[in-house]
Amino acid sequence: MLKNKLSAFLISICLGFSGQVQARAYDDVIASGHLIVGVYHDFPPYSYLVDEQPKGVDIELGKAIAAAFNLDLQLHWITPDENLEDDLRNNVWKGHYLDKDAENPLALKKVSDVMMRVPYDREFAYRQDTQTGEMVNEQVVMFGPYQRESWRVSFDAEKIDAVKTMAVFQYYPIGVEIDSLPDFYLTSAFQGRMRKNVHHYGNPGKAFAAMQAGEVDAVMAMRSEIDHLLFTANDPRYQVAENGFPSIGKQKWDVGMAVKSSYRQLSYAVEEVVEKMVRSGEMEALFSRYGLTYELPELYNVTQ
Asked: E-assigned strands of 81-237?
């Protein structure tokens, strides 16, 4: 085995093979007959499994994009890393260092042709390393905004009359996903006066189940997550709060996609499909099937 690995290493040196994945160009994608779409694992309502069958908004959108090019959809399931830069590196342009074939050390690491659920944010896209001055995300192109996301609170109307300000959670327990932005926000806002009432769960679904079980009186998460949980529960007891989120930073943000920067032709083709879906109302209809509020990305509000 050691001899085989050494031989593979020498071959890679001779061929100039760096071990880095080679993303696929537009023509290669079309010729292959399939489109590889990267989606996050266990992330309802965007991408998840029901009886081993893929479900979610990003799954349906991936199918629509693949169908527009007469391609089959292949899913590349993503397990989140420490930050988005790691996710882009591991799943768009380089591949994860642990994702390798022991039997074939020269095999390319697995990445997606298109990665879903990437913030469409110019400041993030062009962010520079503070020490080197180099662009942090120069290896990827972020494009095709298809949704505008925000934060939302759902509450138990039998426990709380109304939620018009977050200050009410000085007196009522609220559930959040651990180590999420709602977690940090609720434990630090208002000089930390809500900290004692913040309960932590593995994901928003578990927090919502805790509300149904009477452990907490409210849940804070992304708007689409809350919408989907309310849609699934179908119980008027659980309501949407009217409050804002002072001092939370970014109140709303656009969600798009990413490809490797050297394959912009693929991004242009996919973006055209997505834009047609947004402008025709097909995208809004897709979101509504999962019980989600749909808001146009800022790009379309500016260009209309």
From this structure: 114-119, 140-156, 174-177, 198-201, 218-222
Contact 160, 235 (CB under 8 A): no
Statement: the pTM of the whole predicted model exceeds 0.70 = yes
H-state helical runs in the chain = 2-15, 26-32, 57-68, 84-88, 122-125, 181-188, 204-212, 223-233, 264-280, 282-288, 298-303
CA trace torsion 77, 83, 84, 87 (10° rounding): -40
Residues 6+ apart with CB under 8 A from 111: 21, 23, 36, 38, 76, 90, 91, 92, 93, 94, 95, 260
Q: What b/e readout covers 106-116, taking b as 16+ CB neighbours within 10 angstroms?
A: eebbbbbbbbb
Q: What are phi and psi of 238, to 5 degrees?
A: -100, 120
Identify residue 151 by its one-letter amino acid code.
Answer: W
Chain center to CA of 46: 8
Of 171, 143, 141, the C-alpha closest to 270 is 143
Dump pLDDT digits (tens) for 79-92.
888 788 888 888 88
Structure confidence by residue, pLDDT tens digits, 3-52: 343 333 333 333 333 344 455 888 999 999 999 999 999 999 999 999 99
How do beta strands 218-222 and 174-177 pair? parallel
Number of other residues whose CB lies within 10 A of the CB of residue 138:
12
Under 8 Å between Cβ of 152 and 227: yes
Distance CA 96, CA 110 (A): 8
